[in-house]
Structures are given as structure tokens and as C-alpha cells.
Amino acid sequence: MKSQTIFSVLVAWTGLISQLPAQESLAPEKSKAPVFVRPYMAPKTPPAGLTNSDRVHSLIRAGKIYLTVQDAIALAIENNLDLEVDRYGPISAEWYLERMRAGGPLRGVSSSNSVINEIQAGLGVAGSELAAGLLSTGGSGSSSGSSNGTFSQIGPITPNLDPVLVSSVAFVHQSQPQTNEILSETTALVSTEHNYQNALQQGLITGGTVQVAFNEQYLKQNAPSDFLNPAVSPVAQITIRHQFLNGFGVGVNSRYIRVAEKNVGLAGVTFQSQLLNLVASVLNLYWDLAGDIEDLKARQQSLDQAQKFYQDTKREIELNAAAKVDIFPAEAEMKTRQREMTISQAAVHEQENLLKSAISRNGLEDPLIDAAEVVPLDHIEVPQEEELPPLRQLVATALAKRPDVAMGKISDETSGISALGTANGILPTVGTRLSFSAQGLAGTPVPLPPGETASPYFNGGFGNALSQVFRRDFPSESGLLYFVGTFRNQVAQADYGIDQLQLKQGDLIERRNMNQIVVDVSNYVIALRQARARYAAAVDTRVLQEDLLEKEQRKFSLGASTRNDVIAVQRSLATARVEEVVALTNYSHARVSLDQVLGESLENNHVSVDEALEGRVSRASKLPETAGAPKQ
Questions:
Q1: Mean pLDDT value across residues 534-551
Q2: Pick from 90, 121, 350, 559: most CB atoms within 10 A?
Q3: 386, 529 in Cβ contact below 8 A?
Q4: What angle do CA 604, 606, 611 make, to 5 degrees?
Q5: Burial 64-75 (b: 16+ CB within 10 A, else e)
Q6: Is the distance from CB of 436 to CB of 477 less than 8 angstroms?
Q7: Helix (H, G, I), strand (E, B), or coil: what is residue 56?
């Protein structure tokens, strides 16, 4: 008794574990490291899920997979690899939006934004030569190296909206021969120097940048001409750069952020469209399997009749009530039905494999799934009458619910937003650069020749120099206004013209698609009604052939008919049965196609897009009570 209790507990825990969600989030998870380290830690991306959900094995009983339509759809949502690939679309769109919110160019486009730290050097002999115009610095330092971009971006590039900090420390000890001793008063100039450079830059969504820089230079030389040696010179600087025509405005600089926001919605609608197509595909596979099983039953009925007729003929020959040659037509008919039965069995097996592949991740590699027979529990139901709303109402439903209609609207909106770049790109470049800086200088005075005096204002260390900076004892301001224009401007004009033409084409394509939707809805309504009419005719034909066979068999028993006549009616009945099954399957396809063209496949089959995104259907499966015991 105790062992049974332990076993029951283990089974209960196994059931609870099987109900836990096996599908973890597909989205990369950012690091939870400290805030200063977190931006440089790579997000952790979960591995791809390659195992089936527990639902598929829970539906196997006695070597058979008992499937309802709802369970087939649930298994496809949880296990279909195509849908699993599609789940990455909305996640990638979210991450792309995060990237675009940081500003900068599109992926693969080299950035024109850089953090330029302007250094003002004026210490020592080199500073004197620079002030006298005898030495060139060779340009300002920049944090961005050269880059050969293989992609191009039309329109202005949004400034980098993430703050950028550039900091560097340089220590230098050098000896330089001096051919001219007028300034250095030595033939070998020995310098010990360190430089601290710091710059923080913030991009503006309006089309500019603000940069705050703080630099410090320390210099000690063996030059007797230096009045302060060693000396320190800090510099604080604020620089503002902004565009006024090309690249100006929140609208043009935020266009790709808004496009990325639209693309998040587009990715969700795209996933919904792919989910709708998957549901329609699974429904067709399910009903095809149900139809193939019905076809197999019809073939079996025809085979049973042919075998019975063959056995009856054989018995009559044994009783000398019939000629021996009468056995050949009956035997040929039986062999024909056996061959058709074999073909029908192969079709059922093939359709089972297609359905198994759609509802499992590893296909037929799982031996339990491979060996299991699929048993559809639902059957195709044909209503007595098709209660369809008017065509105008059906078209309105399609326009409101079809994902591709929503996708077209979002694409048109994103095209209009992107066109702001080409419209702004026609304008010339007019910009400004404003700079405000304050500098300090302090050091240790050296003995001067008689008659020369040095200002005690500069005596001291870094603290004195820094006080001069904050007091703005030595302020500097500069302003620059620049203009860049292109004669003829053909590239920008052509880009704008191309974008506008594409927008007009998009309007026409949208109108054409709407017209096509009207045609499609009308055609599928007609197809559904025709399929139902064909099925009704096939049922009537099958019933008629059954009556004819019954009458022909009566006539044959009375000697008023021949064996060939009976066989001919049997063949007609077998054909009628197959045609009824084909008509029934065609009706199911027509019904699925109409739901798909109306965009109602998910709603009519109780499919949640949110659950599909998570890869887990909350609705539990329920097996019929007669399904049998679990397979050991």
C-alpha cells in the first residue's frame, strides 16, 4: 500500500511538471550587472527550442494520437518550426526600435557623427612656436576612425542620442634636438608631459550636438626660457553645433524612430498573418486526413461488396449453378478494389506524416510519434444551408480583419515617414558652431634674469589654474556660420522624385489590392456554394447508385440480369462513394479558404495571438473516454 502511495505521488508530480511552460522567452535578456558595467555586457540569448511540448505525448493512447481540430491547432502553435522562426520577428523589431531610439545611422551605414575634443595647447617651447604660427598641430583629435561604409542612407543622419564619453590619459617623456636655441636656450630639449582629455557629447533630436569638454596639460621642461616650469593648464569648453535647413527638425531626425515604432506593429501583424496561414494549413491537413480516412472506408465498402460477390460466384460455380468463366470478371473486380484499397491506405499514411510534421518540431525522429496512428476525432460537417451575410458586409469584414490589409496601411505610413528624409535632403546645409571656453595657467616660477619680473598671479598648482577656469579669467568665445550648397542638386532632386513616385504607386497598389479583395471574397463565396452543391449532388448520386445496385442484385437473383451488369453497377457505386468523399473534402477546403480570405480563421478557431507569441496554449486537451489506456 505504501509503495502505491509513493507511486501515486510521483505520477502527480510528473503531471504537474508536464504542465509547466517549457517554452522560455525568446527575447535576449539584458545583464543585471552594475549600471556602469551593464551597457558593455552582452545580452543573454536563450537557445533555440528544438523539443516538442508535452501535449503531443499526452494525446497518445495505445499507439494512437487522438486529435481534435483544436488539439491539432494547439500542437501546431506549440511545435511548428515555421511559426517558431516567425516568433523572432516581433522580438527583432523591438530590439531594432531600441537601436533607433539611440539615434545614429541605419545598420551598415557609416556615421558622420563623432566626438571631437578640441585641445588648446600653449605651454612650453612648443606652445610658444604654435602661438607664433611656427608649428602646426596636424588637426584636432577625434574618437572616430576612418570607415568605408558599404551602405548608403538617403537623407540626414540622426545625431547619436546616447551620451558619449571620451576620456584619455597620455604620458610623454621625450628629448628633442634644438637647432635654434633662441626660444629653448638649450641644444637638447627634454620634456615630461601628461595630458588628460575628457569630452561628453549629447545629440539633439532637433539636429545638433552639445559637447562639454575638460582637458588638462602638464609640462615640465629643461628650457631656461620657461617662466613657469613645471606648469599646468586646464581648459573647460562647451561647444554647440546645430543645423538649420538640411537635417533640422524633430520630424526629420525622428523619422526612423517612428518607422521602427510602426515596424513593431507591422511585425505583430505579420506574425498574425503567418499564424492565420498556419491555422489554415493545419485545418486543410487535418480535413485531408479525415477525408482520406473516409475514402479508405468507402474503398473498404466497395472491396467488401466485391469480395462478397466473388465468394457468391465461386459458391455458385462449386454448385454448378454458374459457368467457370463467370469467376474471372468477379475476381478482376475484387483485385481492382484491393489495389485501390492499398493506394488509399498509402495516401492515409502519407497524410498522417504531413500532419505529424506540422505539429511536431523534430518531425518523425521521435519513434513514439512516428509509430503512432493519427485518429481524427472531428468530422467534416456540411450544414443544410449556407447562412452567409451579403457580399458588402463580407468585404467590410475582410478589410477590418485581414492582416495583409493592416500591413499595407502600416507600410504606406512608414513610406510617408521615410520620405521626410528625401524632402529635407533637397535643402542646402546651413549650420552653426558656437564655442565657449575658459582656460587657466599656473606653475612654479623660475629665477628670471635681472630686470625681468613674472606675474605672481600664475604662481601655484592645479588648484590655482582651476580657480581661474571657474572665474573665467581667460574666457574665449567663437562662432561659425557655414553654408554648403550643391549646384543643380540632381541627386537630392532625383531621390525626392523617386520617393514621391513610389508613394503614388503605393496608393494605386492599395486601391488595386482592395479591388482584388472584393473579387477574392466573391469568388470564395461562390466556390463555397458550388462545393456544397457538388457535395449534395454527390450524396444524391451515391444514394441512387446504392438503390440501383440493390435493384440490380434483385434482378440478378431472379435471372433478369447478368453478372457483368451487377459488376458495372458496383463500379458506379464505388465511383460515387469516392466522389462523395472528394466533394466533402473540397467543401472543407472551400470553408477554410473563405475564413482565410475574410481574416476570420483565428477567431473562428479560438486562437489567441498572444498565446501563439508565447508558444504555449493554455487550453487543456481532453481525450475521449473510449481512447484506451495510456501506452506503456
A1: 94
A2: 90
A3: yes
A4: 140
A5: bbbbbbbbbbbb
A6: yes
A7: helix
Do 106 and 256 form a contact (C-beta atoms < 8 A)? yes
d(CA 204, CA 210): 8
Instruction: Report the share of the chain in percent with pLDDT over 70.
Output: 86
Residue type, 166: V
**In a 3-state reduction of DSSP, which class is residue 164?**
strand
Q: Which amino acid is at 133?
A: G
Average pLDDT, the chain: 84
Q: What's the pLDDT tens digit per position in 367-403? A: 888 889 999 999 988 888 888 899 999 999 999 999 9
**pLDDT, tens only, 149-208:** 344 577 788 898 999 999 999 999 888 787 766 666 677 788 889 999 999 999 999 999
User: For residue 34, what are the CA distances in angstroms to 131, 134, 504?
Assistant: 46, 49, 51
Tens of pLDDT, residue by residue over 191-230, are: 889 999 999 999 999 999 999 999 999 998 887 777 788 8
Angle at 615 between CA 611 and CA 617, to 5 degrees: 50
User: What CA–CA distance (Å, rounded) separates 106 from 259?
Assistant: 12
Torsion of CA 219, 223, 229, 232, to 10 degrees: -20
Q: What cell was used for 7?
A: 507511486
SS3 254: coil
Listed in sequence order, the residues at least 6 apart from 148 whose beta carbon sits closer than 8 Å to its beta carbon are 110
- Distance in Å from the first CA to the final CA of the chain: 22
Say if residues 119 and 197 touch (Cβ distance below 8 Å): yes
Distance CA 593, CA 601 (A): 9
Q: From CA 457, how far away is CA 447, in angstroms rounded?
A: 16
Phi, psi (degrees; rounded to nearest 5) at 238: -120, 125
Enter the C-alpha cell of residue 217: 596639460
Angle at 409 between CA 408 and CA 412, to 5 degrees: 85
> pTM of the full predicted structure?
0.81
- The secondary structure of 63-116 as a DSSP string is TEEEE-HHHHHHHHHHH-HHHHHHTHHHHHHHHHHHHHHTEE--TTPPP----E
Local confidence band at 108 (pLDDT 50, 70, 90 cut-offs): low
Q: What pLDDT sits at residue 632?
A: 36
Burial letters 89-108, b for 16+ CB under 10 A, else e: bbeebeebbeebeebbbbee
CB atoms closer than 10 angstroms to residue 609: 15
Cα–Cα nearest to 324, from 314, 336, 338, 335: 314
CB-based contact 303:338 (threshold 8 Å): yes
Is residue 612 within 8 Å of 80, Cβ to Cβ?
Answer: no
Print the SS3 string covering 384-439: CCCCCCCHHHHHHHHHHHCHHHHHHHHHHHHHHHHHHHHHHHCCCEEEEEEEEEEE
- Region 66-80: mean pLDDT is 93
CA distance 610 to 87: 11
* DSSP secondary structure, 278-322, as one string: HHHHHHHHHHHHHHHHHHHHHHHHHHHHHHHHHHHHHHHHHTTSS
